[in-house]
Amino acid sequence: MYEAKSLAMYYCIAPVHMGAGTGLGVVDSPIQRESHTSYPVFPGSGIKGALRDHLGTTDDENGMISSAFGAEDPGEGAGALSFTDAALVAYPVRSLVKAFIYLCSPVSLARFRRQLDLVGEQHEWKVPDVDVDVEPGKALAATKSPLLNGGSGDVVSAESFTFEATVSEELRKVAESLSGYLFGSSGDTNGSEFFSKKIKSDLVMISDSDFEYFITSTTSVEAHVRIDDDTGTAADGALFYIENLPPESILSGIVLASRERRKGSQHDANEMLSWIREQISGHTVQFGGNATTGRGLVHVSISDPMDGEDPGSPEGGMQ
User: Which residue has the higher pLDDT, 312 or 272?
Assistant: First the structure.
């Protein structure tokens, strides 16, 4: 039984391919998506495997890695940590004004807020009213930064589309909170100060239906060719296409912890959460496939289980 939990945030630094097997269309190897929303997703089992692999080169004399993720010998006890699937919160889209902006939707933010509630994190924002504030073809912006003047009013540019836009104080609070959970109150984590500020200024909410178009139509698709081992050249008929989640995508999930289950161990659930946060939070971890081609680099942040304040609020801050 899990006795403690923390929020986990994932910020893609390079294209990420968390595959779903054989493709049915033009793309031979698509990314994994939720069946009911089509949102890209990082499966919890893949996250746990990636983090375990990341820690594989560290010294485990005290057995904490085995305690957290499970020992090779099943008789030694199951792992104390579990990771939920990571859901999409915000998605990067090209813009005429700011190179790219972060798009979100009522559903993506409502799910993020639900995760905050589940782990007991305080927050000072609510999801804008989907029926009133975010109709199809319209947008809310956290600040004036990504806005263009379209003649009849302010608009947001996203790919080849424009959305009639207004600035939302509520969305500004969301952007502050999101940036804080990703990079801390200072935002200066692994050179991420620029992106911490960009999230605060360039977060844009559109309707769920408009959001679905972008997340299903604008992912990157790369052509690959298998090399023949004997000739060292491209093999006949070996062209295939791989889909990736683009850099700057933001996802969130939950880390669940129980007391240490290894025989003779005594760490409780909160101690296990604190340990994984110390080992992982702020690190860049390789997720998914194609590691040899520089794919899958993800910045991971885990909130402090002993601090429930919103890091986007004046009093909050990740330690």
Answer: 272
